[in-house]
Amino acid sequence: MEDLLNEVVPQEDLERFEKKYHHELELDGEVTTDTKFEYAFCLVRSRYTNDVRKGIMILEELARTHPDGRRDYIYYLAFGNARIKEYTSGLKYCRAFLDIESNDQVRSLEEYIKKEIDKEVAKGMVVAGGAALVLGGILGLGIAMARNKQKREK
C-alpha cells in the first residue's frame, strides 16, 4: 500500500487534465462530473500537498452532489487524505467505503492508516516521555542547587 501511496501522477497527465478542467470552465462556466473526477484523481496523486488538498476538495464536492460515483470519490478521498497524513479523515473515508461494499484494497488502506496512526501515537508518547524526563531533570537540578546553596549559607 505504501508504494501505491507514494506513486505520483506524471506531470503531463496532471497538466492535461488541468487544462481540460479550465477549458470547460471557461467555455461553459461549468465542468462535467467526469472532468472534475479525472482532474481530482490526478491531483490526489500529485507530489504537491496543495494539489492533493485541492483534489480532496473537488472529490468532497463530487461525493456530496453526485451519489452515482460516490464509491470512487470516497476511495480517493481516503487515498488523498492518507497521502497527506490526514489519517483520521482517511480512516473515516475507508470506513464509509466499507459500509458501501467490502473491498480488499480499501481494507489494506485502512490497515495501513491504522498502523500509521499507531506510529504517530507512539511518537507522541516518546516526545511526551522525553519532555517529562527533561522537566524532571531540570526540577531535580534546581532542588539540588537550592540545597547546596542552603548548606553554604549555614
Describe this structure in words.
26% of the residues are buried. The chain has helices at residues 2-6, 11-28, 33-43, 49-65, 70-83, 87-100, 104-153. The mean pLDDT is 89. The chain is an all-alpha fold. 84% of the residues lie in helices and 0% in strands. The protein has seven helices and no strands. The protein has a single domain (2-118), classed as Alpha Horseshoe (Serine Threonine Protein Phosphatase 5, Tetratricopeptide repeat), CATH 1.25.40.10. The protein is elongated and about 90 Å long.
Overview features:
154 residues; mainly alpha; Serine Threonine Protein Phosphatase 5, Tetratricopeptide repeat; 7 helices; 84% helix; Fis1
Distance between the termini: 68 Å
- Structural class of the secondary structure composition? mainly alpha
Assign the CATH class.
Mainly Alpha
Please give the share of residues in helix: over 70%
GO molecular function: lipid binding; molecular adaptor activity
Function: Involved in the fragmentation of the mitochondrial network and its perinuclear clustering. Functions downstream of Pink1 and upstream of Drp1 to regulate mitochondrial fission.
Membrane topology: Single-pass membrane protein
Main location: mitochondrion
Task: Describe what is shown at a glance.
With 154 residues, the protein is mainly α. The chain has helices at residues 2-6, 11-28, 33-43, 49-65, 70-83, 87-100, 104-153.
Secondary structure elements and their pairing?
Elements: H1 2-6, H2 11-28, H3 33-43, H4 49-65, H5 70-83, H6 87-100, H7 104-153
Helix pairs in contact: 2-3, 3-4, 4-5, 5-6, 6-7
Protein name: Mitochondrial fission 1 protein
Membrane topology: Single-pass membrane protein
Family: Belongs to the FIS1 family.
